[in-house]
């Protein structure tokens, strides 16, 4: 048995011949005494899951993005069959490059584009509208009375007379600003989409659908038109297309993490092994998803990298522990077992906290977030096997380089006391701890004051998931600038008794709400059956605006209703649809509309007439914002509650829990303040980051605090305990914090804006959680872990049971 010096005292290290293979916990004996079996099982499982991962699909569902149990969405889904086009739809603006739409060549191109789109799988053909569809009609008053017909008549032949007839019909159709631009230079093809392809029964593949739209665009833009496409399907299609670049950023982040880990260790084999085990966890995760019936979407596609990042963090700790043990003279097998023995509980607790950070997302009633939580939890479960078990076992076979092992003690460890480590060590001293705590409190107060201005929902027009200068957002700006009927539609449903949708009293209430909504900032225009009645009655009265009123004559109202488009009411005449066209779907705009409608409904709903929210893409987003707002705080309470409970089980000290958790609280507050400063709202894309920052951030504190408690219970002073923690795990905390922050920060260059936002926020939280664990945690410990309590029982030497009680010990203890 050999003996080598340690940081604090001489510790006996058994050689391989005298090492007791039956020492340690039952889990350690089971795993390390059957190493070959464990490795063989992992290799076989990896091969199987790599094969199943090839069947993983990448897609998105419109209904998965919405909170189905929210009352607004429940109202929409209940009336969905009568609200064609008010859910998932695409608008295709076909613009004439020269001249106006009143041109034979343009109308011929529009017809061909319309016909091609009509035949695309997944299109709700009955609800599709363009100038060429029979449902697009005009109504007018002639000397013979009321007249009407399709905007493009059946006898259209492209002659000047036919073109002039089309121009007149468009003016009388009420479609200017709706299907036809104000300047007459473009028109809209409105395409309502089905959730599934009726021919195959499979969910609509948005990537394929978007590619087909782009193919149509490319063919016809080479002729005499420009084509602009907006809608949920196009956003998802562009996001999926951008995932190719996301994979490039993942590769860059992995290379950065590998390079920095090698710079620290100077050991090729152990560095590659850490990267390999982290990648194996990702393979297991991706392979399990299709087996469990899950797929990836543009939001959960970021999760595999987070799993890799977590794996690198834990893997680096295991590798560092083995390196230091080998440097002290331990055989690679003994070093692997001692490292497993010291760090397994801390690592398991950290991973459970990570899992909790993901799992609490399931309380949010939006399926895409719940799926993200499941996908991430599967990845964290894989890490327990690959990085806490497989990695130490593999290192017990290949070991680490001798020079790298000795160097591990010189990286601010036992062989040196560098300036950085001396500086960090001072934060456990009272004269440094006091100002540190004061500064942290001031930062927390300032951050909280700023976070009160945090908005819910989108803060930018167009698709905030994409860059402002992306093709989609340029298309959206064109549509918003040329049409009163923007792509942001908020619909109010008015439920009446059957056959009573055109009752005078009902239309008067609808008219009153329409007027109030039209006064709100952000509302471009409205369209209702009441407005149609006003216009038709005026037309029947030779255009005299004195008649721009609702007649208290039910026969007249019924006559107008009979010729009204079915989009304004349903076949049973028990549901009216009020269309509110918004300039954007910013959180403030949606909130104003929702509050106004709710106030009006509270004052005007009766037993027979009910104003219900909400349909249209803007109405659905308003409901989503409400769910996100309600869930954002509850989510944090749950994740912090779970983290506190797990830390209590691990540390068995409420004081230690406060030291570990308070830095996380500060980081969460500062992250929200940063979101305010950067105009990033809390929404489906950013909400998970807040929870993940807590779950992942506790890892650093767990590794540092576990070492401190072990040394304090062994009799060391707080200063000594913290310096020991710095030497043993603190340097790896610093390494992984900086490495992961740099890796995700590269995402800010991504063309996918929500990925750039997530990268920036995650980089901030990685760095601040690291700083909190290395600076604020010891400062808090100075006041929350008094010397008298630390020194209690100091005369008793540390034992393996003492180490196990806190999950880790910084020195080697003879297990015999």
TrEMBL record:
Coiled-coil spans are none
Q: Does the keyword Transmembrane helix apply?
A: yes
One GO cellular component assignment for this chain's record is: plasma membrane
Q: Which residues form the SSD domain?
A: 275-397
UniProt keyword Nucleus, yes or no: no
Query: Membrane topology for this entry?
Result: Multi-pass membrane protein
Q: From the Swiss-Prot or TrEMBL record, state where the protein is found.
A: Cell membrane
Q: Which keywords does UniProt give here?
A: Cell membrane, Membrane, Transmembrane, Transmembrane helix
Q: Which residues cross the membrane?
A: 36-56, 245-264, 271-292, 298-316, 343-366, 372-398, 432-450, 634-651, 658-678, 690-712, 732-749, 761-785
What SUPFAM superfamilies does its record include? Multidrug efflux transporter AcrB transmembrane domain
Cross-referenced InterPro entries, in alphabetical order? Answer: MMPL_dom, Mycobact_MmpL, SSD
Q: What is this protein called?
A: SSD domain-containing protein
Per the UniProt record, the source organism is: Massilia yuzhufengensis
């Amino acid at each position: 048995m050999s003996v080598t010096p340690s940081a604090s005292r001489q510790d006996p290290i058994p050689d391989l011949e005298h090492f007791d293979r039956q020492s340690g916990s039952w889990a350690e004996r089971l795993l390390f005494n059957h190493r070959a079996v464990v490795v063989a099982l992992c290799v076989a499982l990896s091969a199987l899951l790599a094969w199943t991962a090839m069947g993983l699909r990448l897609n998105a569902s419109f209904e998965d993005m919405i909170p189905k149990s929210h009352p607004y969405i429940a109202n929409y889904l209940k009336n969905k069959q009568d609200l064609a086009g008010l859910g998932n739809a695409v608008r295709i603006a076909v613009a004439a490059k020269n001249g106006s739409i009143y041109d034979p060549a343009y109308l011929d191109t529009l017809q061909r584009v319309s016909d091609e789109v009509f035949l695309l799988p997944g299109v709700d053909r009955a609800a599709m509208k363009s100038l060429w569809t029979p449902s697009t009609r005009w109504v007018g008053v002639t000397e013979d009375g009321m007249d009407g017909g399709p905007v493009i008549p059946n006898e259209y032949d492209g002659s000047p007379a036919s073109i002039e007839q089309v121009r007149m019909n468009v003016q009388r159709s009420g479609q200017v600003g709706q299907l036809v631009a104000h300047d007459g230079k473009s028109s809209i093809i409105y395409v309502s989409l089905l959730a599934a392809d009726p021919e195959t029964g499979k969910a609509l593949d948005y990537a394929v659908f978007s590619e087909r739209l782009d193919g149509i665009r490319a063919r016809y833009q080479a002729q005499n038109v420009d084509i602009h496409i907006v809608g949920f399907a196009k956003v998802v299609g562009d996001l999926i297309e951008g995932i190719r670049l996301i994979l490039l950023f993942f590769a860059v982040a992995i290379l950065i993490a590998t390079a920095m880990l090698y710079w620290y260790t100077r050991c090729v084999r152990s560095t590659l092994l850490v990267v390999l085990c982290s990648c194996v966890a990702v393979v297991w995760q991706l392979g399990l998803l299709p087996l469990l019936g899950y797929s990836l979407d543009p939001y959960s596609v970021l999760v595999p990298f987070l799993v890799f990042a977590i794996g690198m963090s834990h893997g680096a700790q295991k590798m560092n522990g083995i390196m230091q043990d080998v440097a002290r003279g331990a055989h690679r097998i003994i070093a692997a077992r001692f490292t497993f023995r010291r760090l397994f509980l801390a690592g398991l607790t950290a991973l459970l906290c990570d899992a909790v950070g993901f799992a609490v997302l399931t309380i949010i009633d939006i399926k895409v977030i719940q799926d993200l939580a499941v996908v991430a939890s599967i990845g964290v479960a894989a890490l327990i096997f690959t990085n806490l078990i497989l990695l130490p076992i593999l290192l017990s076979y290949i070991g680490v380089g001798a020079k790298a092992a000795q160097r591990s003690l010189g990286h601010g460890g036992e062989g040196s006391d560098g300036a950085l480590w001396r500086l960090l060590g001072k934060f456990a001293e009272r004269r440094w701890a006091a100002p540190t705590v004061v500064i942290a409190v001031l930062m927390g107060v300032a951050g909280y004051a700023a976070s009160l201005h945090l908005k819910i929902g989108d803060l930018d027009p167009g698709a905030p998931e994409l860059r402002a200068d992306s093709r989609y957002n340029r298309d959206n700006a064109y549509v918003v600038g040329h049409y009163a009927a923007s792509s942001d539609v908020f619909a109010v449903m008015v439920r009446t008794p059957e056959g009573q949708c055109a009752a005078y009293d009902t239309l008067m209430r609808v008219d009153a709400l329409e007027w109030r909504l039209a006064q709100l900032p952000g509302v471009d225009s409205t369209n209702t059956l009441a407005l149609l009645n006003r216009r038709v009655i005026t037309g029947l009265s030779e255009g005299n605006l004195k008649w721009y009123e609702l007649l208290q004559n039910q026969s007249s109202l019924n006559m107008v209703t009979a010729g009204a488009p079915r989009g304004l009411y349903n076949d049973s005449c028990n549901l009216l649809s009020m269309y509110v066209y918004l300039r954007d779907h910013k959180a403030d705009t949606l909130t104003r509309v929702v509050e106004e409608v709710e106030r009006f409904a509270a004052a005007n709903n009766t037993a027979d007439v009910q104003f219900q929210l909400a349909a249209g893409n803007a109405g659905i987003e308003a409901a989503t914002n409400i769910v996100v707002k309600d869930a954002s705080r509850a989510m944090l309470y749950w994740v912090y509650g779970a983290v506190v409970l797990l830390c209590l089980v691990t540390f068995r000290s409420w004081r230690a829990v406060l030291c570990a958790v308070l830095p996380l609280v500060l980081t969460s507050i500062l992250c929200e303040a940063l979101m305010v400063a950067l105009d990033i709202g809390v929404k489906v894309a950013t909400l998970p980051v807040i929870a993940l920052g807590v779950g992942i951030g506790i890892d650093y504190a767990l590794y540092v605090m576990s070492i401190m408690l072990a040394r304090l219970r062994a009799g060391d002073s707080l200063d000594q305990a913290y310096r020991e923690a710095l030497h043993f795990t603190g340097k790896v905390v610093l390494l992984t914090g900086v490495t992961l922050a740099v890796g995700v920060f590269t995402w800010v260059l991504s063309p996918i804006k929500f990925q750039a936002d997530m990268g920036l926020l995650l980089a901030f939280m990685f760095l601040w959680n690291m700083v909190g664990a290395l600076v604020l945690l010891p400062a808090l410990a100075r006041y929350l872990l008094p010397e008298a309590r630390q020194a209690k029982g100091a005369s008793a030497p540390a034992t393996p049971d003492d180490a196990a009680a806190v999950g880790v010990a910084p020195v080697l203890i003879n297990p015999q």
